[in-house]
Each structure stands twice: as structure tokens, then as C-alpha cells.
User: Fold this.
Amino acid sequence: MVYDIIATSGSTPYLIGYIVTALASGLLYFLLSKKWDNVPKKFPIIHFFIVTWSGLMYLNFLNATPLSDFGWYMDWMVSTPLILLALGLTAMHNSKTRWDLLGLLMGLQFMLVVTGIISQESGMTFAYWIGNALLLGVIYLLWGPFKQMAYETSDTLGKSYTTLASYISVFFVLYPVVWYIGIPGPLNVLNGFQTSVAFVVLPFFCKQVYGFLDMYMIHKAEEEMA
Amino acid sequence: MVYDIIATSGSTPYLIGYIVTALASGLLYFLLSKKWDNVPKKFPIIHFFIVTWSGLMYLNFLNATPLSDFGWYMDWMVSTPLILLALGLTAMHNSKTRWDLLGLLMGLQFMLVVTGIISQESGMTFAYWIGNALLLGVIYLLWGPFKQMAYETSDTLGKSYTTLASYISVFFVLYPVVWYIGIPGPLNVLNGFQTSVAFVVLPFFCKQVYGFLDMYMIHKAEEEMA
Amino acid sequence: MVYDIIATSGSTPYLIGYIVTALASGLLYFLLSKKWDNVPKKFPIIHFFIVTWSGLMYLNFLNATPLSDFGWYMDWMVSTPLILLALGLTAMHNSKTRWDLLGLLMGLQFMLVVTGIISQESGMTFAYWIGNALLLGVIYLLWGPFKQMAYETSDTLGKSYTTLASYISVFFVLYPVVWYIGIPGPLNVLNGFQTSVAFVVLPFFCKQVYGFLDMYMIHKAEEEMA
Assistant:
């Protein structure tokens, strides 16, 4: 149902552009990590999976598969916890990795996406609001314990982290807004074309662009510390 | 099919009660961990995911989604390996974490749940018996290597672990019994209402109550060691 | 659709043979690890999950379930990353575990399998070619960084690793060939019976036999080093 609306909305050129830039960015991260060799390899690897997985899932919007109605969620379930993993590891750069907090952050985000599926499929909008409560947990972790960890290592890292966390926080709040006023949500303010394009533009900044930004920030922070 | 039987059985108030206590317990674990600050943070985090994931999956029984027929398994695939992770980490408290044994324990439990899906959907009851063989492996690990690890650290920890392992072992054996005599299994001794309520009562003790019990046991063991 | 073709092709005895040898091998790895006690426990554990998961997923070909059309992919999504995990851990035997490279290797393989599902279900053969590009990445990692790590530890380990990597590389290239000329692919050179039997023979060597080979190689390498 969602798929049919998206597929017939005329947004296909945007979807193709998204997929092509996603796969291309995945390769570019690796090329860039040869030049910026002070960035630990785990960062290009995580960003590669964020964009490549997202690109693959958007293939489900080009032609019908059993996943087509859930293409966004199939993407988000993997890519958005990885976005937070990259952000969390940036905060913990050059200090001890706190896997318990990273697990909490990624798990909250994963469940938040699952509430979207349940809400879309069952029409129970309160599942969406449970998801927003989980998002509050994500925001709290980003601006509480993770920010503190970044500043404990160095002021440079703290500032870089704050920039990245602001960037991601704004986008991660826009996602449920678009969902609510778009095709999966109850309001239908946005039509199929607008929802589809919004879910091309938002992830383009959260994934493709974010990967370069994150790697650049770590590269610069390393240079200043050296 | 399973969903239709559950949804029309009149068990909805029980399902709602389960979901509400699950989400509430998730929050309580975090509040409690501020008071019992000798309990490592990974324990409230794991127990939070056990109950919250379970609560979210039970939403699929309130209103139809593509997951509704598999709601129990979707819950169990994530929550029951996490229950065993908490139990295994309790056994390894204050000693080296043996990730190979934890992986074996959680993987056996995950596959056991998958045999339930296959058995329900295909009617091949021998898949259920393969699942029981995997459960034997889980029980062996809990009472063999994990019990030994707990006693090697201290007698106090050994006793606490034995209490928790007995508690979980009893419930984990009751699950396949209810499955076999309930709606998904071949016998149909229990009707839709009875199966649904049984799968509210069992997880309430295995998840909500178990989280408090586990955290209390670790809190007490830490106090005695100090 | 795929399931119907497989189920009526007369390959059932082969499928049953595959399932039985898979479950039996899983047990044998543990028995063998008592005799070859210089092999770290993680190896029999990983190989146990490779064959047991594969055996369980092939149950979906005996009787219809919602997973039956995706039985191969459900198997491969879990078992083939684990095959590469065992190979990668063999390369890193007695040296530092590089989780970033293991994650990259396993993630590439996982996404490669997902392109197979999308390609089969949507008829977009270019998804299959994206999968082949991901396979090139897997092959590069196996013959570049991982081979180097094995030789850095010892010549004996390097040679054992090279044997295992050659073995797996040949089979992992044969999989997409059979897919392309078989039932899921566009050419249909192989009929249902031939595809089904090919996907019993290939995994039998990649999973059941490979587990013994890997454990034997590590056992021998350990003996020579001692």
C-alpha cells in the first residue's frame, strides 16, 4: 500500500539518485580513509554500511518485493543505530569504549523504528508515541553521558562531538515529524511524492553527508591533538 | 490464524496489563539502579530491553499487523536470549567474560525459538522436538559450566546464581509445555483464552519479576563481598 | 513460487540427507573438540551454528512456511557470515582480533545475500550484480589483509589459511553462478531438481566438511607450533 503510493508518485528519479549517491559515498569513505589515515578504520567501515545498506533497501521502492511496504523501516532498523554507533564512538574517541551505553543507545533507536512499523501496519498511533518516548531517551543519552565523555577527553573533541550531535539531533527529530504528517502517519498533509522526496532528502544529509562530516571532524581533532 | 484466535478470546485486558507493566518495569530498573549503585549498569540495560521489547511485540496482539501471527516468537527471539545473557553475566560477575559460552547459550535459545515458528507454520511437530533438544543444551550449560563459574568466584554468588538458574529453568521448561498443549501445538488442551493468559503469566515472571530479582541478587552479593 | 518448484522437483531425499548430516555434524564438532583440545572452543561453537542454522532453514523446504520461498537466503544470511568469521578468526589465530575487519567481512557477505532476495523477488538483475561487487570486496579482504595477518603469525598458519581461503573462495564464487543459471536467476539452465541438489552439494562442502577441515587445520598448526 505504502509502496504503491510511493512507486506511482513520480519520485523514482529522486530514489535512483539516492541509491547511486549512497553506493558511491560508500566507496569514497574508503578512498578518503587512505588520505586521512589518522581516522580509525572502524569509522569508514561503519559509514560504508550506513549508506550501502540504505541504498540496497531503497531498491525495494523501484520494484515490488515483500519488503517494499517496509522499505524505510528495513533501512532505518540497521542504518540509524549505526549512525548513533558512529556518533557514540566519536564521543568515546581516545577513551574507553562503554559498550553498555552504546548498546542502550542503539537498542533504543532500533525499538523506536519498530514502533513505526507497528504503528503503520496496525493504525495504533499510540505505538508512534511510545517511539517518541524512546527518541527522548536517545536525545538524553546524546546530550548527557555521551557529551560529557567527549569533553572529558578534550575540548576539541567535545566541540566536534557537539556539532555532530546537534546535526543528528535535528534530523532525528525531523524524521518522526515527516512520518506523522506524511503517508505512513495519520495526518496526510504530505502526499506520496512529498513524503518520498522528504525521505530522500533527510537521509541524504543524515547518511551520505554525515559520513564525510564525521570523518572530517575526527581527522581534524586528531591533527590538533598531535 | 493464531492472532485471530488470541484477539477474539477475550484476553485483551491481560495483554494490556502485560504491556503496561512491561514498559513500567523498564523505567523502574533504571530508577532502581540509581539506588543500588553497586549493580553494573549493563544489568538494568539488559532487563530494560527484555521487558520493553516484549511489551512492544505484544502490541501486535492488540491490532493486526503482519507480525501478529508470530508475536510470541518475535518477542522470544530477542527477549529470551537476553534473559540468558543476564543470567550468564550474573554467573560471570567479577570474573572473566566468556563470550564463546555466552554466544553458545544465546544462539541455542534463539534457534529453539525459530523451531517454534517452523513447527507452528509447517505443522512438522518434529521441528518442535529439535527445539527441545536445543533446550536440553541450554539447561546443560546453565547447570554445568555456568554454575561452576559462579561458584569459582564465591559461594555467595554461586548460591544467588543457583536460585536464579532454578527460577529460569522451571519457566523455560514450562514454555514448550504450554506451547505443546496450547493453540500453536498439536494437542489443543488449552483454548485461545487459556493459551493467551498462560503466555502473559509465564513471561511476567520470567521478565518483569526476574529483572528485579536478578538486580537484587547482584546488589546483595556485592554488599556481602564488600 | 521458488518453494513450489523445489518441493515438487523430487529433491526431498537430498534435502533430508542435508538436514540430518548438518545436525549430526553440529554434535560431532563438540565431540571432536574434546579430543583436539588445542582448538579454541569458539571454533566448534561457530561451526555448530553454521550447520545447525542451515539444517533448520532447510526444514522450510520440506513443508510450506512463510519462509519457504526465502529458505536459501535465510540460511545464507546467518551461515555464510559465520563461515567467514571462522575463516577470519583462523587468520587471526594467536594474534590480535581485528573486529573492524571481521565486521566488514561479515557485513559485506550479509548484504550480498540480501541482494539475492531483492533480485529474486523484484526481477531486477542489477541487484544481483551489486551483490557480485560486494563479493569482490569479500575476496579482496580474504586474499589481502587476512592472508597477510595469517603469514605474519607463522608460515604454518599462513599455509593452512591459504588452503582454507582457496577452498571457501571457489565455493563462494560457485554460489552466484548456480543462482544465475538456476531457478532464482534469469537463465533457467538448471531446472528445479538440479538447482535444489546443487544447493545441497555446495553447502555440504562449505559447511559440514569445512567445519572438520578448519578444526583439523588449527589442531595441526597448534601441534607444530608446540
